[in-house]
Design goal:
The chain is α/β, with parallel strands linked by helices. It contains 17 helices and 20 strands. Helix 5 links the parallel strand 4 and strand 5. It is globular, with a radius of gyration of 23 Å.
Length: 460
């Protein structure tokens, strides 16, 4: 279906778009510009929305704002915001009445004219997605990077060509109940996450499978050989499965062994590069590169693999070097919104860091994180809504030794950062990697990371 054909299916039908945020604001504007009648629904008031509300109203949108924004949800077609799960009671009732519930990303898949590589997972999906994009661009392809990474693509599809690539990061929120069929799908890993939204962990695991369950037989699925859910996914895959593996050879895919990374094709190996040539620190980034190399296999050369890996400096808020001041290194890993991601960051440090942790409660257990903090941190400064849970996990860890680990709990984020900085001596690393989302005190992890950087850059 072309973009214009899709738009035509919406004309003479009532359309609601829920959530006037990063992904849906361009969608609403595009629909209005193409003659579709839209009701924009958002839990914010008109005063809180400000200029966005004024602009949409001037363009002809009907506005349903405030606490009752989901009442009277009877439109023929409903575009949900990713954070509103499809089983939410108002959406479920609307679907039962015959409404079609979709999303900006599902609409993109319906009209996308180019090849698609899609990435999901609990950790590493943004970095892996970005690396794939960098690899393809270095090979001369036109690349459209988007999805959960913060850039919606539906409105841009008229400018895409059949030889282009769309490289997408997809979250479990986007994938849940969504039908998509990427040419290449990647699942980096799966661990408990977003259990404040999903009814249980199995629902989260199954949501990730939506990235490949409708693939064609000639499409490819890239899985992490070491992940506990890989066999479950491989057994359900209708597509061709390849693997990436750190420390153990595979027959098809990419693996690392004895400090080097190899392509594996039918049991034959081709060396790509040494792992210590990768600019991004940490074993988890070796895995991210292997996943990206596997996804782009057949499209790029080993020379391009090496060139990108040796020069790419990473994505903002992901083990991002902020500054070195008086011999103290400050690192922003605000993307560390789960215990496993924070653990990976700790393992990437060259010395035991002073960790700043805590934030919004996604109902994920912190027991394992307590062990990681005790083993790999010099001290930990805990703040946010999850402070008590993280403190308990640390104190109850069998590795906890008050003589070796300094623990502080503070309510205010600013004071926490300043206290961690004041305790640092030359040679120390102050690492923001909260293991939690930011919603208790910030709009998102990007806002938290930017504020952390502002605080660090203001230090005298």
């Amino acid at each position: 279906m072309t973009f214009n054909e899709y738009i035509d299916t919406l004309k003479n039908r009532s359309v609601a778009v829920i959530g006037v945020g990063v992904s849906n604001l361009p969608l609403i504007e595009t629909l209005l510009e193409n003659g579709v009648s839209v009701t924009a629904r958002d839990k914010r008031t008109i005063e809180e929305m400000g200029a966005d509300a004024e602009k949409l109203s001037a363009m002809g949108a009907s506005l349903r704002l405030g606490p009752d924004y989901l009442e009277g949800l009877t439109e023929d077609v409903i575009f949900r915001t990713p954070g509103l799960m499809p089983f939410e009671e108002h959406l479920a009732a609307a679907r039962a009445r015959g409404s079609a519930v979709t999303s900006e990303m599902e609409a993109f898949f319906a009209v996308c004219p180019c090849r698609v590589i899609a990435v999901t997972g609990s950790d590493g999906k943004t970095t892996t997605t970005t690396i794939i994009s960098e690899l393809l661009k270095a090979a001369g392809y036109t690349v459209h990077l988007g999805g959960n990474i913060g850039h919606p693509l539906f409105s841009e599809t008229p400018d895409m060509g059949p030889e282009d690539f769309a490289v997408l990061e997809l979250s479990s929120f986007q994938l849940h109940s969504m039908k998509c069929s990427p040419d290449v799908a990647v699942i980096t890993n799966v661990s408990p996450n977003h259990l404040d939204k999903h009814p249980d962990f199995q629902d989260y695991v199954d949501a990730k499978s939506r990235i490949f369950i409708n693939q064609r037989p000639d499409a490819r699925l890239i899985l992490n050989r070491a992940d506990g859910h890989t066999d479950y996914y491989a057994a359900k895959a209708p597509s061709q499965v390849a693997y990436f593996s750190r420390g153990k050879a595979v027959d098809d895919g990419v693996f690392s062994e004895s400090g080097a990374i190899y392509y594996a094709r039918g049991g034959e190996r081709e060396k790509i590069m040494d792992t210590d040539e990768i600019k991004l620190p940490g074993d988890h980034n070796v895995e991210n590169y292997m996943a990206a190399f596997a996804a782009a296999d057949g499209l790029i050369s080993t020379e391009i693999c090496r060139s990108v890996a040796m020069t790419f400096a990473g994505v903002e808020h992901r083990l991002e070097l902020v500054r070195v001041l008086r011999g103290v290194t400050y690192i922003n890993d605000s993307i560390g919104t789960s215990p496993t991601r924070t653990a990976a960051g700790l393992h990437a440090m060259k010395t035991k860091p002073i960790l700043i942790a805590g934030g919004y409660d996604k109902h994920i257990p912190f027991d394992g994180l307590g062990d990681e903090i005790c083993k790999y941190c010099k001290s930990v400064y805990i703040t946010g809504a999850t402070a008590d849970k993280i403190l308990s996990a640390v104190m109850n860890s069998r590795y906890y030794d008050p003589e070796k680990l300094h623990v502080a709990v503070m309510d205010d984020f600013t004071e926490t950062v300043l206290a961690a900085s004041a305790a640092a001596v030359p040679g120390d690393i102050v690492l923001l990697s909260p293991a939690c989302a930011a919603f208790d005190k910030f709009k998102n992890f990007m806002e938290r990371g930017k504020y952390f950087k502002e605080l660090v850059m203001s230090l005298k």
